[in-house]
Specification:
This protein is mainly α and 55 residues long. The protein has one domain. It has two helices and no strands. The protein is rod-shaped and about 45 Å long. The model has no long low-confidence stretch (mean pLDDT 96).
């Protein structure tokens, strides 16, 4: 759940950042994809840390 939430927040953040920088559609999509990957990866590590500490 944390990974999905992170990916959605990342995609939204990336798209808004590219739009604020006056990017074209391809730029907006690329920023959204890369930020979604980064935030999902962070969410994955957070999930692993939480799960590991719960044991």
């Amino acid at each position: 759940m944390i990974v999905i939430f992170g990916a959605l927040i990342g995609a939204l953040t990336g798209a808004l950042l590219a739009r604020r920088r006056k990017g074209k559609l391809a730029d907006i999509l690329q920023y959204a994809f890369v930020y979604a990957l980064m935030f999902a990866l962070v969410g994955l590590f957070v999930t692993l840390i939480i799960h590991r500490n719960a044991l």
